[in-house]
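Thread: gamma-amino-butanoic acid complex, take 2
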Amino acid sequence: MLDSGLQTPYRELAQVMSDHARRRKQGPVNQQPSYTDLQQAVTNQSSLAGKKSWNLIWDVVDSYLDNSVKTAHPQYFNQLWAGQSDPAMIGAIVEVISNTSMYTFEVAPLATVIENELISVFRQHLGLETWAAQMTTGGSNSNFLALLLALHRRFPDYQQTGLPAGTKPRVYISADAHYSMEKALMMSGLGLHAAVKVAVDENGAMDMQELHRHLQQDTNDGHKPLLIVGTAGTTVRGAFDPIEDIADAARRHNCWFHIDAAWGGAIRYSTSQGALLKSIDQADSFSWDAHKMLGVPLMCSMLFTKQHDAFRNAFRLGDTSYIFHDAIDANEQSIDTNHDLGPDSLQCGRRVDALKMWLEFLFYGKEGFQRRIDQFLDLSALAEQRIATEPELELQAPRWINNICFRSKPEGISDEQELNQFNQKVRQSLMQSGKSMVNQAYLDQALTIRLIIANKDVTESDISQFFDNWIAEASELKREWHYES
Ligand code: ABU
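Output below.
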């Protein structure tokens, strides 16, 4: 590529983007490069620094994209997010070009209005019209903020003085909940010992008898039940904790009730499964990652709360006038700065995550999101049927939504540890071949293959192709397995 000079790099960039858009769904999903090879290439690049070479820049860009996993590929089922949508991608790129921060209306005027409008649209879609909300850096961050809101409500001086001496708050999460609430406890100073992991039932939902038992025991022991976290869409099984029952327990023990719906929040759009979230208004707060099932580029996260002054009470700090000015413009006229989003956020600098989601919404609308989620669930039902018809595949957990947990159970292998090794190897070689990417997790001691359908461009034939790929790889491995043993 010719050295383009400082004035025209964006022409090349446009070409790179257009090539990438063409190639992102083709070829191997993953090159599976070795760390050592990549490190060697990066070290070589490093030795060329400082020469103002555009050739070097484009070489790095080419190499970066060649060595990235194609997360928009129809055989990428690895994470709780996948795919690429062009309106949202344009929003993400424009956001970077504009390079501003969401803290003040002054530096992010239209972005502020768009974020407010987007929140308002989602509040309406979720049925939380009267709630307050803010955008956060991700689901983990939302869960941390929810813990702070709970602490602040129970201990109104928490912001100033921390916890009253000798107080022992407890936070209840299911054994299948995301690890972020435990990290939040580590960061907040409450410590991991404040976490109570409540057992789940055979479907992966919080066991209510167990929750009641813990709450009673802790109260008897002088602990203070503070927060109960229900998960709407656990990371592995996609399970939904019983919202109404938890809300009832939370009321009785004066606990904050937070729903971690980072993954499952978008199920609200489903015509068949939306009722799983019909009682979310019984919670005090609710976190949701729109970058997961709605497929916009990472990150796009929100935290909603029913308690209107909660953000203000928990996150506002006294003198921040260096940035959130008293509104006097050059003509000594008062200008309205009440639109600043920064004072009630825990962050200072913050990206404009709203724009990509806004463009995605404008392009597809609520009906488009409904169709997308319904399609994920239809394809998941298809995957489940395929597993049922294959003699050497088994479903390992009842399916709630678009998480499908399965494994190969080849004839002649019955030892659980051997089954784990076998499935891990199939996954690994499938990934190394670049044919498909799918993740693994554990359900108790059993390794499970977690298939996630979250790419809006995936079709029935892609699902069939995935199982064909899996079965072919498993058959080959089975031959070697029996030969070697
Ligand atoms: N924040 C949870 C994402 C984990 C996953 O993609 O599986």
